[in-house]
């Protein structure tokens, strides 16, 4: 890709579609963030995407995200001004301005968080994130896998509250402290994670994921225009795997401690008739069970997609009767290392399971 280019208005829709797929059921529906960006573009603001390779080693990069439960995020939106507020709070704490901004996770609405900041602050957006998807907690990031410093962190909400966590003993403690603050302000807030140097981004970031999400969205929309199967288009462009096709028959869902947790049950259709697939989730899908046996687990990207439109379906919008296709997409390489699996493998989510790739069978 070129060193720097403008993200076009048309690409915003493609990004929303692709990022929603990479959300693995979480990260929040990008639709409202898309509307926010379209309004900012209507006002004449723009976002510039830069190649991470062009970052200087000492450039300072803001890593931003919305924290909270996806279901709450559908009711209490984080507007661009709130997203920027967490970045400005971090700049005041550091006594230095940022040179660029990037997303904690490319999955879901958080793919748009750096764009909202960039459009208001005239900062470039780095073509990278730290997960290659969405995950529920900060210790699931590639920066945590790399043992980079987890602090400081800033958090801001719509009521004009702002908090700085200046130090934390570990990534898990940072997540625990900030998650409790987030819960107190209503289970949704804008955050600016620990600042990163350009060198750290290139060493430990998951690179070129904004472009990846746009390309995924392009594959879906092109398939629709050509009356092809959009789910098959996603599988082809990402070398993915179709795991199950069926109809949702039950959803057990609850919001606890700032997370959306539960299980969705799917009754098989077509070639999968007579079988059952269950998907556990903690904001994102974590383990898929085929007839009671674990078929797919994190860190591979487990997506539930509308079988006709190819749209991703988030854990907060699962409904009885939806016709769905469950797809697995490959995980970023950093997550498949021994250290990576300690952070994002099934045992990191409380399962007594070892990770086995569906792409190895």
Quick overview:
32% of the residues lie in helices and 27% in strands.
Keywords:
361 residues, CV3147-like fold, CV3147-like
Please give a structural write-up.
The chain is an alpha+beta fold. The protein folds into two domains: 4-209, CV3147-like domain (CV3147-like fold); 228-360, CV3147-like (Beta Barrel), CATH 2.40.390.10. Helix content is 32%, strand content 27%. It has helices at residues 9-22, 31-42, 70-75, 80-94, 113-121, 142-145, 171-184, 198-204, 209-225, 230-238, 338-344; strands at 4-6, 48-50, 60-68, 100-103, 125-126, 128-129, 153-156, 162-165, 188-192, 196-197, 206-207, 241-256, 259-268, 276-282, 284-290, 293-297, 301-306, 323-329. The strands form four sheets. Strands 16-15-14-13-12-18-17 form a seven-stranded antiparallel β-sheet. Strand 13 and strand 14 (276-282) form a beta hairpin. It is globular and about 60 Å long. The model has no long low-confidence stretch (mean pLDDT 94).
Number of helices: 11
Q: What share of residues is helical?
A: 25-40%
Question: Could you state the oligomeric state of the chains shown?
Answer: single chain
Stated plainly, the CATH topology of the largest domain is called: CV3147-like fold
Secondary structure elements and pairings:
Elements: E1 4-6, H1 9-22, H2 31-42, E2 48-50, E3 60-68, H3 70-75, H4 80-94, E4 100-103, H5 113-121, E5 125-126, E6 128-129, H6 142-145, E7 153-156, E8 162-165, H7 171-184, E9 188-192, E10 196-197, H8 198-204, E11 206-207, H9 209-225, H10 230-238, E12 241-256, E13 259-268, E14 276-282, E15 284-290, E16 293-297, E17 301-306, E18 323-329, H11 338-344
Helix pairs in contact: 1-2, 1-9, 2-5, 4-5, 9-10
């Amino acid at each position: 890709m070129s060193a720097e280019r403008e993200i076009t208005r048309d690409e915003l829709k493609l990004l929303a579609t692709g990022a929603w797929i990479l959300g693995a059921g979480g990260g929040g529906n990008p639709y409202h963030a898309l509307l926010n960006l379209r309004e900012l573009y209507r006002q004449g603001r723009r976002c510039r995407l830069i190649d991470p390779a062009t970052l200087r080693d000492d450039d300072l990069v803001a890593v931003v995200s919305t924290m909270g439960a996806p279901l709450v995020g559908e009711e209490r939106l984080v507007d661009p001004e709130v997203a920027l507020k967490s970045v400005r709070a971090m700049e005041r704490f550091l006594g230095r301005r940022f040179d660029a901004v990037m997303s904690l996770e490319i999955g879901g609405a958080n793919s748009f968080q750096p764009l909202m900041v960039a459009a208001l602050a005239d900062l470039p957006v780095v073509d990278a994130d730290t997960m290659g998807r969405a995950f529920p907690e900060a210790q699931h990031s590639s920066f945590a896998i790399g043992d980079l410093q987890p602090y400081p962190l800033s958090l801001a909400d719509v009521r004009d509250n702002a908090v700085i966590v200046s130090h934390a003993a570990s990534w898990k403690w940072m997540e625990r402290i900030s998650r409790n603050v987030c819960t107190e302000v209503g289970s949704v807030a804008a955050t600016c994670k620990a600042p990163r140097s350009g060198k750290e981004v290139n060493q430990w970031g998951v690179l070129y994921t904004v472009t990846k999400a746009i390309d995924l969205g392009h594959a879906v929309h092109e398939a629709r225009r050509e009356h092809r199967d959009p789910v098959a288009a996603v599988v082809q462009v990402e070398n993915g795997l179709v795991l199950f096709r069926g109809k949702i028959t039950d959803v057990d869902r609850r919001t606890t401690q700032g997370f959306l947790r539960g299980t969705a049950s799917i009754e098989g259709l077509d070639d999968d008739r007579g079988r059952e697939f269950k998907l556990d989730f903690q904001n994102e899908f974590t383990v898929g069970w085929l007839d009671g046996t674990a078929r797919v687990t994190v860190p591979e990207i487990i997506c539930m997609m509308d079988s006709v439109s190819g749209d991703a379906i988030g854990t907060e919008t699962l409904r009885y009767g939806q016709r769905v296709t469950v797809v697995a997409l490959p995980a970023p390489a950093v997550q498949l290392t021994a250290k990576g699996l300690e952070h994002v493998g099934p045992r990191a989510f409380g399962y007594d399971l070892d990770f086995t790739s569906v792409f190895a069978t």
